[in-house]
Amino acid sequence: MQEPAAIIAAECVVPTDDGELPGTVDLPDGPVRAAVVVVHGSAAGHRSYCCYTHVGRVLTAHGVAVLRYDRRAPLEPGRDVPLRLQAADAAAAARTAREIVGGDVRLGLWGLSQGAWAAPMAAAHHPELFTFQILVSSCGVSPAAQMRHGTAEQLRRHGYGDTELTGLAELRTGWEAYQRGQLDRPTAQALVDRYADRPWFPLAYVPRELPSAGGGWRDMDLDPTGIFAGVRCPTLLFYGETDSWMPIDDSIAAWRRASSAELTVHRVAGHDHLLMREGSDADPAVGDNRAAEEAISQQYADQMAAWLTLGLR
To answer: Are 48 and 288 spatial neighbours (Cβ–Cβ below 8 Å)?
Structure first.
């Protein structure tokens, strides 16, 4: 990876409607041309995650400030933060970025995976704030449908066949019904117990012991095309072609069908859901992990920087 220009990292606080979120602003060593707010993937809520620090390193070299902040804690243990709150926090972070870098700078969003649902929601709800967005692994189907796709692909890539896929479908259908409050806990737990000793069970992403109450993530049946339809700002989409979690073709088609925004789509060969090189042994969960950053696609970094540079002229 080419060494970028110096970064000035400044700690900050993002005030929300009900509290504060700690953050870091990566500032270029020179004039600020724009500012980007990072919106989190589901399993990566800390601002030091490698994909977020990588954005800071890449974009500050081109005069773009990057605000990274810690995602708020879930309202209930074990539950995802509702997308509407994630979108509201992204808007609050954008206002904080504007205060830091100056009131006339252009603001944009960068969202990864789950954050690529929340970021366009923020862009649609706050067109006065955001003038562009960059999305990595943006899904065009519901979270429930995406998990059905992704878990089935995990089994296929581990060599399982039709019998195991049929069992997975039954298990996840029951888990989703419990999450929706449509299935009582004893019935749902009995279904889990039936499959828990199968060797593929860890790939199903269903808890071994169900939570005491159903009615889980309220966004699980969200149709993202309704969000995409509200986006008006130019949008840059990236997909890693070896991504095992994302229905890429369906997602690109959903964007093109639903949105009137100017879309630019890049598919990155040989790279995965995080745009990391397929087969890399770097651990993306380690904060400020330069080895993990170096596994992230250089093509993606170059195309992102070129798109922003052209748009900011």
So the answer is: yes
Closest CA to 198 of 164, 147, 159: 164
Closest to 117 in 3D by CA, of 88, 91, 87: 87
Q: Give, rounded to a whole angstrom, the gap between the first and last alpha carbons of the chain.
A: 26
pLDDT by 10s per residue, the chain, length 313: 444 445 688 999 999 999 999 999 999 998 999 999 999 999 899 999 999 999 999 999 999 999 999 999 887 766 789 999 999 999 999 999 999 998 789 999 999 999 999 999 999 999 999 999 999 999 999 999 999 999 999 999 999 999 999 999 999 999 999 999 899 999 999 999 999 999 999 999 999 999 887 666 679 999 999 999 999 999 999 999 999 999 999 999 999 999 999 999 999 999 999 999 988 877 787 655 778 888 999 999 999 999 999 988 7
On the CB side of 164, CA atoms within 13 Å amount to: 20
Q: What is the DSSP string of 140-201?
A: SS-HHHHHHHHHHHHHHHTT--HHHHHHHHHHHHHHHHHHTT-S-HHHHHHHHHHHTTSTTG
The angle at the Cα of 256, spanning 251 to 258, to the nearest 5 degrees, equals: 90
CA distance 97 to 59: 15
Do 78 and 104 contact (CB within 8 A), yes or no?
no
Total residue length of the chain: 313
Q: Who contacts 242 (Cβ-Cβ below 8 Å, separation ≥6)? A: 269, 270, 271, 272, 278
DSSP 131-150: EEEEEES--SS-HHHHHHHH
Please give the Cα distance from 32 to 147 (Å, whole number). Answer: 39
Distance of CA 206 to the CA centre of its chain: 20
